[in-house]
Amino acid sequence: GNQEAGEMGLAAVPGRQATFRQDLAAAVQYARAVGCPRIHLMAGRVPLGADRATVADEMETTFIENLRYAADLLAQEDMIGLVEPINNRITDPRYFLNTPHQAAAILEKVGRPNLKLQLDLFHCQIMDGNLSRNLETYFPLIGHIQIAQVPGRHEPDSPGELNFLYIFELLESLGYSGYVGCEYAPKGDTLQGLGWLRSYWERQGLQHGGTSKAAE
């Protein structure tokens, strides 16, 4: 969509299906060029002036239609489509997709195996909390994890509500083998802000880069 015009994706926005398909085709070209097998299919915002409850059914129908189209196209490229709930309490009051429960219900209706949940723990904590149970419940649907401390949205070791040592151990125990995206705003310099990761590796007995010292 057109971010300058206030758009945050188009997949659930009625009447914008043609533009969504054009943008998706461009995204596939970029993903193919950089070797990225996953594309975030952004739902978009409730139209200005519209009541969320009034337009919810139409937006969900549009979302499901577009997700099926996207899944079929991405399957030809051996790619995965991701949907991400974004909290509407702090980050984006008008974003259509807000909770993992809503996302899971929509993915079930779409019924395509190459569509997955992009679970950002920052948004999930703000909307629902209960992260351990949510990770366990929705683990089969998860295609990508993103992290940030709550409420400041900074590094995982910055002051906040979340215990990321516990969360990382839980992800390992569940068998998560994908990437963890650092979807946060560094409090200072980006590289200095990655000090938490070096400390985590050392605590786990790993070399910088995640390789085992014993294996070395």
From TrEMBL:
Residues annotated as domain Xylose isomerase-like TIM barrel: 9-199
SUPFAM superfamilies xrefs: Xylose isomerase-like
Gene symbol of the encoding locus: Hyi
GO biological process: glyoxylate metabolic process
Signal peptide (residue range): none
Pfam families cross-referenced by the UniProt entry: AP_endonuc_2
UniProt keyword list: Isomerase
Protein name: HYI isomerase
Organism: Stercorarius parasiticus (Parasitic jaeger)
GO molecular function, one term: hydroxypyruvate isomerase activity
